[in-house]
Amino acid sequence: MTASNLSRDESQPRPGGQPLRGVHLDSTAQLMNRIGSQLGSQLSLVSLNGTRRPAPPALVLVGHGSRDPRALSTVRTLLDRIRDLRPGLPVHLGHIELNEPLLPDTLAGLGTGDAVLVSLLLSRGYHVKQDIPEAAAVARANTRIAGPLGPHPLLVETLYERLTEAGWQAPRDEAERRASGVVLAAAGSRDPDAAVDTRRTAGLLAERLGVPVLPAYASAAAPTVPEAVRALTARGRHRVAVASYFTAPGRFSTECAAAAPWIASAPLGAHPSMARLILHRYDQTLAAPATPAPALASA
Questions:
Q1: CA gap 238, 182 in Å, rounded
Q2: All residues at 6 or more sequence positions from 55 whose CB lies less than 8 Å from its CB, including other chains
Q3: Beta strands, E only, 107-261
Q4: The whole model's pTM is what?
Q5: CB 124 within 8 Å of CB 194
Q6: For the CA atoms of 160, 161, 167, 168, what is the dihedral angle to 10 degrees?
Q7: Which residues pair with 185 in a beta bridge?
Q8: Could you give the CA distance from residue 198 to residue 92 in angstroms, rounded to a whole number?
Q9: Is residue 86 scored above 70 in pLDDT?
Q10: Cα(150)–Cα(29) distance, rounded to whole angstroms?
Q11: Does the keyword Electron transport apply (predicted)?
Q12: Mean pLDDT, to the nearest integer, of 252-276?
């Protein structure tokens, strides 16, 4: 916040004509916290003998890309959350397709520096196994690649909170529990490992909610969301919610939400737990023994 904003906040009157001193104090506190955070991040790069420590490997967040402008806005907000949580960590963005910057361009900008690639993908599949390793293999940067974000308890907690925001309430009695169910709506993949990962997340969410959770897919895999809804309804479960297992808004999340007979949660988005999980994958990858990149098959 700029000094001019602080002055305006202080000078705006309250009822009775008194200035908004509380707003001024709050704004000043936020500004001082940000300055302190930035100063701390710079001091962390200086060792006790006054020499500059090497910067940590960059975190390259790899998004899929989307034609929906809400997706890019969401990812940028998530980047800000990561930077707030880890001041001094270089954080960059690269997309697999559809949005700039594309991942190869981001990696080219790093030169020969060190980087950890953390994707916003929620399960194993073609992008995790092929697209990202191929981009890393031809880059000059010294890269390590983290696994997909899921399955992980932080994702389950985010799904739970998004459902709660949409209106989910724990069943009040056994009858309501027997009438309740959730469809976990995911993007879908032809890779069987992706289905394994999504089923694992569905199982963890079922444990969290205490009701059945069926995985379903927007494309490339079965069942679809409407099919999963019908399957739950056929079992007498008429209180069915759709949990949006997407990292950001887009066509798939919109279509899946439209199939919800009751409530549909928002995508995972820039939830604070998502930022923490990304940093966890970054730290986890750095802590693991470095392994040479596998040779890529020729076309």
A1: 10
A2: 45, 88, 90
A3: 114-119, 142-145, 180-186, 213-217, 239-244
A4: 0.81
A5: yes
A6: 20
A7: 216, 244
A8: 27
A9: yes
A10: 37
A11: no
A12: 98
- Collapsing DSSP states into helix, strand and coil, what is residue 91? strand
Judge whether residue 26 has pLDDT over 90. Answer: no
pLDDT, average across residues 55-60: 96
Rg (CA), the chain: 23
Is pLDDT larger for residue 41 or for residue 192?
Answer: 192
Q: What is the pLDDT of residue 52?
A: 64
Backbone angles phi, psi at 85, to 5 degrees: -75, -30
Q: Give the distance from CA 32 to its chain's centroid.
A: 28
Among the listed residues 250, 297, 292, the one whose alpha carbon sits nearest the alpha carbon of residue 120? 250
Confidence at residue 50, expressed as pLDDT on a 0 to 100 scale: 60
Q: Residue 142: in which H helix or E strand, if any?
A: strand 142-145
Type of residue at 207 = E
- For 213, the enclosing helix (H) or strand (E) is strand 213-217
Residues in the chain: 299
Question: Which neighbouring-strand residues pair with 119?
Answer: 62
Helix (H) or strand (E) holding 58: strand 58-63
For the segment 199-255, what is each residue's pLDDT rounded down to a tens digit? 999 999 999 999 999 999 999 999 999 999 999 999 999 999 999 999 999 999 999
104: number of Cβ within 10 Å: 15
Q: Is the link from the previous residue into 151 a cis peptide, with omega within 30 of 0? A: yes
For position 129, what pLDDT does the model report? 97
Quick check: 97 and 65 in contact, CB under 8 A?
A: yes
